[in-house]
Amino acid sequence: MSERAHKTLREFSGKPVFPLNDELFMAARSELSAAAEKQDLPAFLADGDDRLTTFLATVFSLSPFLFDSFRAHPELLEHIDEPFIPQLERITQQARDAWRDPEGKTGDSDIMVRLRTAKRRIAFLTALADLAGMISPEETTAFLSDFASAAVAATVDHLLVSAAGENKLTLKDPDAPSAQSGIVVLGMGKLGACELNYSSDIDIVVFFDPDAGIFSEGDDPRSLLPRLMRRLIRILQERTGDGYVFRTDMRLRPDPGSTALAIPVEAALLYYESRGQNWERAAYIKARPIAGDLAAGETFLGEMIPFIFRKYLDYAAIADIHSIKRQIHAHKGFGLVAVHGHNVKLGRGGIREIEFFVQTQQLIAGGRMPELRCRRTVDALEALREARWIDKATTDELTTAYWFLRNVEHRIQMVRDEQSHVLPEDADGLLRIARMSGFETTDAFSEALLDALKTVERRYARLFERETTLSGEAGNLVFTGEDDDPGTLETLRNLGFERPEDISRVIRTWHYGRYRATQTGNARQRLTEIMPELLKAFGTSRRGDEALLRFDRFLSGLPAGVQLFSLLKNNPNLLLLFVEIMSAAPRLAEIVARRAHIVDGMLDPALMTEIPTREYLVERLEAFMTGADIYEERLDRLRIFAAEQRFLIGIRLVTGSISGFAAGRALTMLATLVIDEALQGVLAQMEEAHGTVEGQRTCVLAMGKLGSSELTAGSDVDVIVLYDCDDPLSMSSGPKQLDVPRYFARVTQRLVAALSAPTAEGVLYEVDMRLRPSGKAGPLATRLAAFEKYQMNEAWTWEHMALSRAHPLCGDPSLMADTGSVIDAVLGMPRDRNTLARAIADMRARIERDKPARSQWDLKLIPGGLIDIEFIAQYCHLACHVPRGEIGGREVMTTDDVLARFGPEIMEDGDLEAVRRALALYTDIAQLTRTCLNEGFEPDTAPSGLLERLCKLADCPDMSALEALIADRAGEVRAIFAKLLPAAEDDEAAG
């Protein structure tokens, strides 16, 4: 390149490009002439016959992007007749120094302008030099990659200087901010290999050493660095009036769905050592330190070598890499080699096949042959030739095809600065690409393109001819004998298991028939048949070892295995469902392990398609209870039925088949049917032992989350037992007579025992009756008249708030209707809104003071959390003015239902929408976490599969984004709460 340092664009040879048509060419030449006069540009631009002017007009007729760039910034042509290579090098250096400012006052906006100005110039000049044939595609990619590296490095330096100015870290060398910072910034993919295409995005990953000695004690780098990386993405990627620098992608970092944008070095190394996949190994072949602490970057890559390049010949990578290629074709729909509409990167015979051809063989042999560890594709092709892995003809053919296709790719992108790799479908569009590529006709271009594509396709196909045999040789799954088979351990490790020795030992237990489920030869044969898919499914799930160990506990309790193994073989979706349960939902996994028969319910065709409505549950409950006539047997069957249906509702929730709101309604409907069945059994038992009371009526009033149809997995049930009769002073009619209060107290005691007493089948529900009149001091069962008197005359505001969630659950229909009327009357009592608001706000302040949230994930208690929303809903309910009968006393109303019905009278539309939006988010998270976990949720200890599911349901890229979303929603709710119930602010100010 140094030999041509003094060459100008004028010195191109022949006709490197042809104009699209005369009309566009003449228009471009005219505008160049006009600009030369008006913009003080070089005079030769006004000469329509000048060699360079003709070339520029030709280029502008072909590329709307370059033509528009000139129109918007004529100064791009000020030095067009000067040596271009020094200009390109100078622009790159200016980008690298963009963070510097003599006054040390560079802000984000300043560096954004400088980098965008430099990008505009280098993109314009590089395209012209490339189209003129003055630089090769190889040099084009190098110039673009050098500029991108300089832009990222300057941005990182700027961010470190900015953070140091805020006393968040201390630079070891202010003139070289990144030096010895321990911050590793790697360019991945084509950026790492210095092969960047013309309109490429850039892939980077960022790691840091927390002990590098630059971070202040008060600032955790685990939160500081991700914030800085969000700024980096904005500085490089955001489109402004000056354009953009590069679209920036950081998703090649470990586990991007659940990790921050910057990760500690040790955590990254641990991830790759334990969970890294073959595609990640392939990605790291091209990795290169481009910014930050370059020495630390080289050290990191040195430690990654054992992960990237295995010590032994790694033929298993062939099947893995080829499967990725097959998935690309299947997903994108790529068929045969073509011209019109063909994807020159991902299509048949495209650039990706050359890269896979190279990377596969690098992964196979790079551990034993360091000379194959080349970043650039063409360098690796030459290294493979020198190592005699491929012959010279293959090297030459693929190298020529590679640069031809990269050249075409650049021209596709130069048309409109779009990251496209697809040739136009229309004739005019294809002619444009042909003439930008130096072909005067489409036919000539098509012939050359097809020759390149078919050459690549032929060479690529030959590499994978032995795929089945080779993958079989290296894909050992041998579980015989007492010692571990090394090949099997390698296979398990490649599948993603972190502790292959433990997994191998567990599987040997299965094959040895030590469990009842695997004692028969037929069962073990079926198990062997599903083993590859089973291990693949578990291995690719996050924390696959833990998930498979839960599956082992399930197998240990299974009475027989042939049917299950056959089902898993013939139902791939059931296999995936098992894996999802074991990897994301420890609580559900434990239930499966304890209750193997619950698998039967998972085979219900309606499981994922039918929402569990009342009719759905009634039909199944009636069928399940048929034939059970003894009271104790019916209670056990209720326990089995409820456990199975709660589990199946949880399955629907985990897989995303139903929402959090739907899960709450389903769990409440299930509880309603079960409690009703238990109540009927209790009343029958009481009649047999103590007779009946004249005119007796009994019902259960649902309170709390049961009342508002918002039960979660593991919720207890808040109930009040109400009764009525003709004469409250009478006695029951049976042989063992009881007075009325004792009779209905006994009914209540038996109902509580029926629900909460532990039997061999467990507990139905824990029962809480503290919301009855006078709480623990009050009678177990309450006569309706006494309940009405208490609520109308003695109850506190908080009791009316609790009553607003209540609904008659089950029992005598007439008493349920009468109870609903009482609730209507109580809720419809006139109230002073200010007094009510102060009472509710004071209550919330006391809760916050006496029982603060444990963490941000305590969604019930955090400021702006579920309690705030429930209190807002209850305020709207109690403060509204609606006719009696429309207040909802007889209805089942969720918190969201209450907000929707009564909120519009009390709240502004925007506030109401914000509160309901937060409620939906909180409900989805709370329902899912309580379904999956026995203990409270904390991201640090939760299964990765659950974290991934949480991010998915909230449409967040990672947990940091989800935490930020929750903080935003909580902030909105708390502000609305304070506005609606202003005494809350007064209380906080006083505190």
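That was protein one. Protein two is written in the same sequence-then-structure order:
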Amino acid sequence: MKCNKNLLTKALLSTTLIASSTLFAAAQISFGGEPASFSQPTNSLRSAGVSKVIEVRPDFNPDDVKGLQAWDAQQVRVKPLVIGRAIATDINFARDAERITLDDGTVVYRLTIDAKNAKANILYYDDFFIPQDGGELFIYTPDRKTVLGKYTYETHPKHGAFATEPLPGTTAILEYKPALNSEEMPSILISSVGHIFAKAAPTEDPGEDQGSDDCSVNINCKEGAEWQDQKAGVVQMIMYSGRDVSICSGDLLNNTNEDFTPYIISAAHCESLTNRRKTSESDLDQWIFTFHYEKMGCSSGSFALGRGKTMVGCDLMAFLPIQGQSDGLLLKLDQMIPDSYRVYYNGWDRSDAIPNSGVGIHHPAGDAKKLSVYNGDVTLNTWHTSDAFGGPNAHFFFHFTKGETEGGSSGSSLWNEDKLVVGTLTGGGGRCQSGTNFYGRLNYHWDKYKKDGDATTQMASFLDPKTNGQATKLRGRWKDEAGTLRPLPIVSGVKVTREGNNIKVTWDAIPRTHLADGWKVKYNISRNGRDLDKRTEATEFIEPVTEAEKDNHGSITYGIQARYEYGTGIATENPDRPERYAVTDWVEQGIYIGEKSQTVPVIGVSKETSGGVRISWNQPYNLQEVTLFGAPKETSEYEEIVLNYKGSIRTHNHRNGYTPTEITFASKFPTASFDANGSALYVHGIRVIPTQKLSGVYKAYVHSSKMMNSQYYVNQPFDVPSNWAPGQWVTVLLQKPIAIDLEKVLFAGVTIPNKNVTPFPSISFVKYTSDAIREYIDGNIALENGEDILSYSNAVSSRIVSKYSGYAAISILVSNVKKPMTSADDQRIYVTGKNIVPFPKVKGFTIKRNGTEIANVEAVREYVDKDGSENDTYTVEVKYEDGAYTSNEEITTDATEPTVYPTTVGIDGLLHVSGSDALTSLAIYTMDGKLVKMVRQPASTISMEDVAAGNYIVVLDGTNGRKTQRIIR
């Protein structure tokens, strides 16, 4: 079945690793540029009339559609994940656009389309044709953060159906600039607008995942290290059929001619749940395929914004339905994939062998690319549900040992131990390692159901044209054997040090293993999110501290970005416009240059039986404050975030609707940018600007990951101080610090009772806050203690929160010390920024008795003063290492012999044991000699939660003999 016209689409390379995104986050054209109106102040536009907005209102209830189409992980189901519905329109750009004259005399035509309450929108066209004389079309969001284009004649050189990729939010602005001295208008006929009510594409949101994060594995985690070639062929498919907009996963396959025909393998049920094909040729013209949508690191708190390279339109080559067969689908993209896409053509194995181990790579719930691992126990099985009855033994059946699949994973490939594709995902049920998975066998897709005269009933002739289906296996490959068309390596080994009065940044040179002769590699440098415009071929950068300190608040973060210059260029979809250069994601590294805690509180002075006293002290916290917008300025302006009472709402967990008891407004923090150098990090508090002076209303909310686990979650009540004035920040220290899981997302904000009161309590946002490199949408709503988490756009569409422009006045206070802070600790904030930088490393401590120095010790937390008494006054000063800053490590109490600390056990109920490897037992006795706890072969931490408050003796037995200590619980 032939799909008519399509477009090879290429996203401009984004600049994100720790989190960078260019203005043009994603696009379907490689020609670049920007809309003409962007060079003009918004308020300077002149027009003969009022700006025209065409409103496209949904003729359906999105909640009803979501409820009917919801993917239930606990049920064995087979269907693509529906993310939206098309709304019919009759929009003719030439007829409906508004003529605007810019200040410099340039004439542009502009049209605004508002898909009311949509999370994203997709424009579908009956005709898309731009005159060959040089006209340019851009499509962008009102805030100008996401821009598609420019589209030119080369985009779609024939009249016919077309689609443009999802644009986040409700509103799309189309802006066309005709060629100089031309009056010819483009033929842009928009037949429908895809109203997206669920996840559809990369969004400006750290950890934008809609899927579960308790057992999902990002493709760039360590488990994916051996699958970096194969992942480059995986696609997310956005399908349009009838009115439904849905998503599946697919994969690019090699064929025995090795001519790079763009075959995409997926599941037949993504096209039809019956044994009959349902998608029209016109609809297939508008299917969207996105390569390289993935997170750069392992963390779900990182970005995948704008990394995708997209194509539109396909041919349907083979259809092996789920009803009675093996659920296989083979598509062919209408145009060859340009070299600049850097994709991998996966190999396959169509033998009847059962795989022993391997992976699945997919886009669950429309998220960035994930990986699932299996090791053995694969059997043959038959798909059988109320939806469909498959062919006998046409499927592989097994459980993953790591990872899972969800709605949106359908159609994704299964690789065997030889890294060859052997099947495609039909579906399954359950969660994580208990979940079941059925993959249609490539062996059956091949020619098991072949019918003479109907080429669509087999895949053999397409994947093996050389020997007409006789081949059993085929290798995967890049488009060139030399490897120059692999994805471009990012910078590695970035290190920041202070050397005297200078800051020095160094990094490893990009290896030339897969670089063509004549290519040059240069490096761009940024400081605190601002490009310094200092391109260099060197691998170091040095600047005076005085220069670096100009825009710092206790820390400096440098970013390095590789720029590849190709010389003659890399082929694109337009042979006359080769790609001359490309840039990779920014890699950032920070350095702590602020003040530091000079002293730490002495928390214990206890008499030793052998004479003298034992002194113990806390670690320095050196609190770092993290916001989404950096340090607040004296000139910062604040306005109230309008929250609203919600009488009833339907969510994934409450499909019949319910009235939440509380509403939480939270920011989502990009934990991937928290540089701990391997050290644990803990949230010790939050800071917010409330809108009302209230007691018993607000709660401080911190939630690391989406799991409802007390280890990662707190919702602590707090009162706004009586002396608080509007616009002032309120600091709330947590009684239980929350460990930050750097592989998960982190939410922080405030919880408010969901009561129908006026005014509704809320917090403020900081107006006019933005960042050219790290830009994303702020504001998530959590219901029922995080049981349901809504994105900003969903919260707006549900009318829980009204739109606002800027970042919420929310910050988190972070340290690498686990113990809760007390009033005796230094609670000052030494660093404020958008991420965490490595903490200053403690070198040791200076002990003073009654103001006189008596000892210098290494990084331990106890010292025995044989000449001291309990009546003496002790102070402990901190000594730090100079030069490179790395993460602090937990400081032990004694450098030589086993011991326990702290001497007064805190509210976390934990007793730490240094030197536990040398111990055979740890016993705790009351002061009158009664044994209350015995631990054999103790670990480094002992829980005291089962021990009542009081004074105790701890007896440590081990290779160094017996030692006793007194502690207080």
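The first helix runs from residue 62 to 69. Keep this in mind for the problem set.
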